[in-house]
Amino acid sequence: MATQLNPPASISLGDFGIMESVSKCLTPKLDELRGKKILFSSDDKTLVPAEGWGARPSSYCATTITTFRPIRESTMVAAIDSSSIKLAETEEGALYAIKCGIAMAYGGAALMHFKIGPMLFYLSESTVFDSELDDRLARLVLADSDIARRLVRVRAERAIQHELSSHLHNAIILVDGSLRTSVFEDRNRSMAKIAENCVLHKNLIAGISKNTKLKILERAAAPLAKVPGPAYIEVDVIIKSLVRGSVGNNLMAKLDKSTPVLRVDIVGDKNQALGRLLGNDPIACGYPETLRLAHHISTFTNTEVTCLRSHVLNSYDVTELAADDIRHTLLGSIMV
């Protein structure tokens, strides 16, 4: 006669010693949380304390704060941003789309803007291995769509930046993000080449980051909160010790009297670049209006994605396959 086994009414992690085992390899240290100022995070948003972290001294705080003012010297400001998406895939590769935006300002007012794209790129073994990437990186591009999107975006942005740096004179070129070399660059349109062009044509190039993953920079920039106007501190020592391939001077700066502190990388004279930027590009909420506009121009809309799909179906004699959502199949209606 079979014996029926009745499961216990409840099982806790403590019954298996799992929590104790985890604590031995990663100490919780929750007691150190008591009395701390806390900011609850969000996975899809970049949050900072509205009034800063406070005046607690830090060894990373800069001792020299440099203030600057608008320089009313008419200068062309050209800002570039882009976005890329994975549009489709085949057995051998994947199809990506990229869209770029260029916005220009002059004499303190917006001047004009351009949309480049959307452009389509099909990445397969033949195209990737012909792109001058080393074999290991090429295989990674084929295996990881996020890395492939990064490749497409870096090369498109570098091409635009290279052309602007070659044809503009005595201008300011704004880049969304930090100025640093990339393993995805084409050797003839690298960040080093762009910086060299800027020097030859008397252009200034600045990379402005909306946020930074290096929390140490937020602590270093804390003294800027007390400054009533535009100011910056130099953080070259911190950046160069943590990040490879950084180009130009590294700053933490605020572009208005009471706005967020941004990371700014500059090739050229720092004070000239920041002063002429304020004198020629409208600053809204502490961020250049040209970069804001370039971002909106480069963002894909649902209508554009639908049109791209129709274009591919009508132009390339492809056969669309029915698709299953694996996450929905496995997780069902509880999927978030």
Descriptive report:
With 336 residues, the protein is an alpha+beta fold. It has one domain (67-302): archaeoglobus fulgidus dsm 4304 fold (2-Layer Sandwich). The protein has helices at residues 13-16, 18-25, 125-128, 135-143, 145-167, 191-200, 215-220, 236-242, 270-280, 289-298, 302-315, 326-331, and strands at residues 66-67, 76-89, 94-106, 109-123, 172-176, 204-209, 231-234, 249-254, 262-267, 283-284, 287-288. The strands form 2 sheets. It has a 9-stranded mixed beta sheet with strand order 1-7-8-9-6-5-2-3-4. β2 and β3 (94-106) form a beta hairpin. α4 crosses α5 (145-167) and α5 runs parallel beside α6. The longest helix has 23 residues, at 145-167. It is globular and about 60 Å long. The protein starts with 12 loop residues before the first helix and ends in a 5-residue tail after the last helix. The model has no long low-confidence stretch (mean pLDDT 84).
